[in-house]
Hints:
The structure holds 2 protein chains of 2 kinds.
Chain A: E1 7-8, H1 12-21, E2 24-30, H2 37-46, E3 53-59, H3 66-69, E4 82-87, E5 90-96, H4 101-112
Parallel strand pairs in A: 1-3, 2-3
Antiparallel strand pairs in A: 2-4, 4-5
Chain B: E1 3-10, H1 14-25, E2 30-33, H2 59-72, E3 76-78, E4 83-87, E5 93-97, E6 102-110, E7 114-116, H3 122-127, E8 132-133, H4 136-139, E9 147-151, H5 155-164, E10 170-174, H6 184-191, E11 196-199, E12 202-209, E13 213-220, E14 226-230, E15 233-236, E16 240-242, E17 272-274, H7 286-307
Parallel strand pairs in B: 1-2, 1-6, 2-3, 6-17, 8-15, 9-10, 9-15, 10-11
Antiparallel strand pairs in B: 4-5, 5-6, 7-16, 12-13, 13-14
Amino acid sequence: MLQTGLEHVESQESFESLLKEHENVMLCCGRMGPMCLPVYDIMENLRDEYPEVAFRDMDFDGPASHLVRRLPEVRSFTGLPFTLYYKDGKLVEATSSIQTRSQVTSNLDRLYRNGG
Amino acid sequence: MAHHYDVIVLGGGPAGLTAGIYLGRARARTLILDAGTIGGQTVLSYSVANYPGVEETSGRTISQTMLKQARGFGCEIRAYTEVAGMDLRADPKRFRLGDGSEVTGEAVIIATGGVPRRFGLASEERFVGRGISYCATCDGDFFTERPIAVVGGGNSALEEALALARYASKVTIIHEFDHFQAEPWIIEEVRGNPKIRFLMEQEVLDFEGGEKLEKVVSVHKKTGEVSATVVDGCFVFIGYVPNSGPFEGVVSLTERGEIRTDESLATDVPGVFAAGDVRAKRYRQITTAVADGTIAALSVLESLREKGR
Lengths: 116, 309
C-alpha cells in the first residue's frame, strides 16, 4: 500500500472515472522504493504549479496495476516507477525509472501546455 | 529586496538537515535550500540498519524525521529550489534563486552531497529503465531467471550482486580492477555463489540493444580483448561524485572535486563551511554526514559570535 500525499488509484472503476473526468492525468505506478519516492514527492510538489493536471499514484502490486502492466507501451520497461501521462483519456507518454523534476516538468509542459 | 538570514545551508541531506537542527535550536535564522527532494541520497536507501539509536528503518523515514526536527526548530526549508547565481566572497553572501528572488546570509554551509557516478555514455541514458538500473531491490524481480550484469566492485555492488543472484539465472560482475574494494566476508560470499561469474580489469565501452538492453560491451584494460556480455539487465554501482561543480574556482577543491576543509569544516573562503559527502574525507555514511552537520553548525555559530551577530 502506498503512503504518499497523492490520491491513489486502487480499482478499475476509479481508473476509468479518473480518465473520464480529467483531461490531463499524470499517473505514477510504483512501490515505496527509493526510485519511486522522489517521483511521488515531485508530483506532490507540482500540484499547485499545474492545477490543470490530475496527479495520482497506483500501487504496482495492487489490484488495479494490471491496467498499467498490460499496456504495450510499458512492455520494454524494467525500472520502477512506471509514469504515465494521459490526455483526453489517451496514453500520450510513458517513462520508466526515477525522473528528475525537470524531466517531469518538461513532459508536462510539452504535453499539456504546448511546449510551455 | 533580498531576504536576509544568519545562515544559508545549501543541501537538504542529513548533513544539511543536522546543521539546520543545531542552528535552529540556537535561534539562528536559517534557510536550507535544495535543488531536489529533501533527504539527499538517504532517501535512496531502502533500509538503514546501522544508524545508532534507531532500529532498522527506511532512508525516507530518517529523512522525514530530520526534516520535521529542523522545521520544528524554526528552519525555513525549500525543496526543488535552484540557485541561479551566488557570490560567496561577498559579505553578506548573496544568492540569486531560480525564481529571480534574492537571499543573503552571514555564513554558508555547503552540504550538497554527492551524486551516483555514471559512465557518461549516451547508450547508458537510452537504456535506463529498459535494462539499466541503479536499484536491485526496486527492479530485481523484472529479471527473474534472466541473465544480468552488475558493474562495480565495492560493498554496494557486491551486496546487490548477491541479492540479485536470488532472482537472476546468472550474474556477471564486471569490475575495473583485478581485485574488489569490499569487505572480505562479502567477497567470500560472492566468490562462493555458483550463479556469479567475474569479468575483471574491464572498461565498459557501450550498452547495446534494441527496445531493451541486450549486451554490455567491455574491454580488458591490459590485453585489449573486447567482451560482449549478453544480458537482459545491468545494475550499475560505481560510486559517487561530489556535487561541487558550482563551487569550482570559488573554494579550494581536491583533484577529485571534493571541497577542502579544516577541522572546523571551514573552507578557504571566510564564512563558508562544508559538510557531508561534498567535502574531502575518507568515510561517507549517514552517521558521518550527521557528525559533519553538527560540527559545521557549531563552527558557524562560533564564527557568528566572533562577528558580533
